Amino acid sequence: MKDVFILAIETSCDETSMAIVKNGTTVDSFTVLTQMDTHAKYGGVVPEIASRMHTENITLVLEETLKKSSITIEKVDAIAVTYAPGLLGSLLVGVEFAKTLALLYKKPLIAINHTIGHIYANNIDNKLEFPLLAMVVSGGHTDLIEMKRDYHFKILGSTMDDAIGECYDKVARVLGLPYPGGPNVERLAAQGKYTYKMPRPVLDNTYNFSFSGLKSAVINLVHNELQRGNEIRKEDLACSFQTTAIEEVVRKVELAIKNTHIKSLILAGGVSASHYLREEMKKMASKYKVSVNIPEKKYCTDNAAMIGAAAYPLFLEKRFVDFQLNASSQANIE
Length: 334
Ligand code: KG4
Ligand code: ZN
What we know:
47% of the residues are buried. The chain contains ten helices and ten strands. With 334 residues, it is an alpha/beta fold.
């Protein structure tokens, strides 16, 4: 069969990214322009600034991606774009740009759900091994999903309140660490010990998660200690928080492994960049002889290569969309 090249576009949050992906698995060209430094000044992503910066940068990112590619845009087989979920204004920039390219170069258009993109990051330089469990841990999601084949998703459980990444970011803020919080909390935690007692969510017999209690506990502890004039051992608090949060994720995945007949486990989303999470998950899964796949770090956080990977099965089935495609801040994956 002829090779299939997909030009993929991702603008759902604060990264303007494009990639050309061959056969859903080989990255031919890849660009990420992050706005992180700008948003860091405000302690989090400012939606209006994000969409304006996508608009300013998107043509440059296309030029750069095509320059690095082994093919020209005329040779691309389809254009794929993240249409949901995410920041509406940011998504719209990508969706309108993708439509324009598809119209101009007469290419089919493929609409991709961002969360599914994170899952398919595991298909880059690899092959998804079904049946599998996917643990999606990002700034917006904490979902445990069973997949028996391509594009067949059964959500076993989700967070009832905050996403785990959001929780990392809030804890980072109260500890005075810059945005994005996850990597900074992890760095600090590596120097600390588990000395602070943390509450554990009590959703024992479900696959659902809850992180708001843990988040509030850290915030209250910091405020109370400051009021009393006590010093906070920040690295110990970061370590206590991280250990509790990750233990909870590992515990739920272990429960699912025991109750399903899966061959492999994949991690997806920004928090899967966490070294601690990766190691704890591998330790647990080795007891059950389940293989663990985790994307390379650059494909864990938001990027367009994963969108190109997720678009390939849809391309094979000719699941194209027309120019009525609209962006949406929320979407289900089932
Ligand atoms: O997937 P992503 O780039 O964006 C969303 O779709 O949400 O995930 C971003 C999240 C942020 O909350 C960030 O703090 C977290 O991923 N993150 C981490 C690490 N690297 C990024 N959390 C924990 N440890 C890390 N090393
Ligand atoms: Zn994401």
